[in-house]
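Quick one:
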Amino acid sequence: MRILVTGGAGYIGSITSKTLLDRGFEVVIFDNLERGHREAVDSRAKFVQGDLRNTDDLEKLFSDNKFDAIMHFAGLISVEESEKDPELYKENNVTGSKNLFDKALEKGVNKIIFSSTAAVYGNPQKIPIPEDHPKNPTSQYGRTKLEIEEYLAELYGKDDSFSFVCLRYFNACGATPDGSMGEAHSPETHIIPLAIKAAQEGREFKLFGTDYDTPDGTCVRDYIHVLDLVEAHILALDKISNETGGYYYNVGTGKGFSNKEIIEKVKEVSGREFGVVEEERRAGDADRLIADPSKINQELGFAPKYSDIDTIIQSAWKWHSKR
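Output:
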């Protein structure tokens, strides 16, 4: 199969692309490199630089290449940034995605795996969160992802030969075991790389919000290792290669760790102390997000292998220590 990977120069997209290539798939990566890294692109993949917001770029991409399926990672991901610049997120995440899907269907590509998020749920009414939980995003980032999910469902309603999977990531994290590939966002807003940077540089870490409705007052999140997340995409591809339909799956472990617990674990793994400065909470952050992963476990046979918190932070530390 030949797979189009949008955002394949980014964190999850690049590691997914490498895994696909290792398993014998052909891969074409499409990325505008605004937030991605050209050096993260595997030399075995075909790389096309272009922007989802530019329909001419998409026309050329689909005219020059034939695809069996699309894994759509491209998008902006910062909750904080989305609240400061909602129009940027609307244009990049929603308009870009709709352009991609419309062109794909026009060219006869009818299998899409979409990189969604637990942020579509907002502050949960029950923990752990099942896929049928009400959707009430608390950030523009979450709202844009939900709008894309709804558009995919709309397309499926018009053409039942079209199939899609929305994978609702909880907190993607970690790096490859050899430390060769990992997380490098700009701007970086994720707690594990920021805490590791504080440990490396001996500077204070900014902890945003200590007044959440959680046991220690800080946000609680479900952390999923990037390699397990990649495996979920490959299982999802197998699903829609054999069955048509629209599917939604949480990708998490069902376990939660608070921000304070993550900070302490980074200190333990690194063997380094650093100060913590408490700041006001960031707009759009939910109190607790913990997956009910039973659906993906049962329907796709998903079984995380790398997502214990020690493995996550040890692999991330190795990656950041090499950079």
